[in-house]
């Protein structure tokens, strides 16, 4: 049974299990990374046998396997994948940045140059469930950014990759696909092997081993984020349908026993009705055991004094997914400061964002929406600034720079300017 609280009765840091969790996988992951770094493909083949039961002759998915996948997937679902990809592409095209040049002062040219990463790695889970949506969401922004090569890794249980994953990769434009999962896949992408090229950035969700591996290789490569269990927070008032609110909470609860579903409302009637609906709906779910554990251990209903306070609570929690289930949601939008992705109104369930609408579903969790953003085209670019001064322009400001350098005790910095002033721009 989900627990109800008044705002003053609960600690915000406990809402989404914000306390630091100690895992026992760090040493195991470090050993796997070092093994792959030293032994390369030999280690990867060994881990494929050990973890996936796959006796592979080649780590890379062949062109024949990729082509066959398009015929193995139901054509109606292929059309749905293509339409979702078009929506994702259209949304992310709006995120593209442009170079700029500033020439407002005589003899001075300043600017910024936008450049895509050379190579990106996309990790796609392939354990108890397959997620073609992850392929689309993580690959399409990279393609729009202009990344030269996109490398995908995914576990291949028994040596086979789910054809739906391969079909999504074809639609999204993945360049190469490898049958590798777990921490060993992250290590291969970070360090490179005889078969797997090393990448500049690794994106994509995974289990505790994958998350820990991404954490350990960060610095050698960039990563998108360290994602925690999925979260949803629903702001709802007395006009809301309890059956719908409960269904939306369960849409996240079925992900993981540690997933968090939270309702914040100013209506005791709705709180009680949603609690009853959760009890009715959970036994009907195929993943009822997972949903039950999530709701009982991590689910919460918070009673606010007003919807104004409800919004304040949401901002304090900074959820991954935020649904504003009211009749006039745009009246609240300007007040939202911290949320990964926002779903407005009673006809915008979070599942729209997971699969189809267009905005990215790779989102900050565990309160990190306070300072980070959804995966975007920006994640696959880098920016370089450039500066040009003529001799006259440098002469005009040169002594100021020398003074600045001397104040910091870096005389050689100042001298690099002074010597040019002495030579008069020769």
Automatic annotation (TrEMBL):
Binding-site list for NAD(+): 123, 184, 207
Keyword NAD: yes
Catalytic activity: L-histidinol + 2 NAD(+) + H2O = L-histidine + 2 NADH + 3 H(+)
Record's signal peptide: none
Involved pathway(s): Amino-acid biosynthesis; L-histidine biosynthesis; L-histidine from 5-phospho-alpha-D-ribose 1-diphosphate: step 9/9
PROSITE patterns cross-referenced by the UniProt entry: HISOL_DEHYDROGENASE (PS00611)
Gene3D superfamilies associated with the record: 1.20.5.1300, Nitrogenase molybdenum iron protein domain
Residue sites binding substrate per the record: 230, 252, 255, 321, 354, 408, 413
Catalytic residues of the enzyme: 320-321
Cofactor annotation remark: Binds 1 zinc ion per subunit.
NCBIfam families, sorted: hisD (TIGR00069)
Reported function: Catalyzes the sequential NAD-dependent oxidations of L-histidinol to L-histidinaldehyde and then to L-histidine.
Protein name: Histidinol dehydrogenase
Organism: Anaerotignum lactatifermentans
Chain's gene name: hisD
């Amino acid at each position: 049974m989900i627990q109800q609280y008044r705002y003053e009765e609960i600690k915000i840091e406990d809402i989404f299990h914000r306390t630091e969790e100690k895992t026992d996988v760090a040493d195991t992951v470090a050993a796997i990374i070092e093994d792959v770094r030293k032994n390369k493909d030999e280690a990867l083949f060994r881990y494929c046998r050990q973890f996936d039961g796959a006796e592979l002759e080649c780590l890379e998915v062949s062109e024949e396997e990729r082509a066959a996948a398009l015929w193995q997937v139901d054509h109606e679902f292929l059309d749905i994948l293509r339409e979702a990809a078009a929506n994702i592409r259209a949304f992310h095209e709006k995120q593209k940045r442009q170079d700029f040049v500033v020439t407002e002062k005589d003899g001075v040219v300043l600017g910024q140059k936008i450049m895509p990463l050379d190579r990106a790695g996309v990790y796609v889970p392939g354990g108890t469930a397959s997620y073609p949506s992850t392929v689309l969401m993580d690959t399409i922004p990279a393609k729009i950014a202009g990344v030269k090569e996109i490398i995908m890794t995914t576990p291949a249980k028994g040596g086979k990759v789910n054809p739906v994953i391969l079909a999504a990769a074809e639609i999204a434009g993945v360049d190469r696909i490898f049958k590798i999962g777990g921490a060993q896949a992250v290590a291969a992408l970070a360090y490179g092997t005889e078969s797997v090229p090393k990448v500049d950035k690794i994106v994509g969700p995974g289990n505790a081993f994958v998350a820990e591996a991404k954490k350990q290789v960060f610095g050698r490569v960039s990563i998108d984020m360290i994602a925690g269990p999925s979260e949803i927070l629903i702001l709802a008032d007395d006009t809301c349908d309890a059956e719908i609110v409960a269904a939306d909470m369960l849409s996240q609860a079925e992900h993981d026993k540690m997933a968090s579903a939270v309702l914040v409302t100013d209506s005791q009637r709705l709180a009680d009705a949603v609690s009853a609906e959760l009890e009715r709906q959970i036994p009907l779910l195929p993943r009822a055991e997972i949903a039950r554990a999530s709701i009982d251990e991590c689910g919460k209903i918070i009673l606010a004094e007003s919807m104004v306070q409800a919004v304040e609570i949401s901002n304090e929690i900074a959820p991954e997914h935020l649904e504003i289930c009211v009749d006039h949601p745009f009246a609240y939008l300007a007040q939202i400061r911290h949320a990964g992705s926002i779903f407005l109104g009673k006809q915008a369930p979070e599942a729209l964002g997971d699969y189809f609408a267009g905005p990215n579903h790779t989102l900050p969790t565990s309160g990190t929406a306070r300072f980070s953003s959804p995966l975007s085209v920006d994640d696959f670019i880098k920016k370089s600034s450039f500066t040009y001064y003529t001799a006259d322009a440098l002469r005009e400001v040169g002594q100021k720079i020398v003074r600045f350098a001397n104040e910091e005790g870096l005389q050689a910095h100042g001298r690099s300017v002074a010597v040019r002033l002495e030579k008069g721009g020769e």
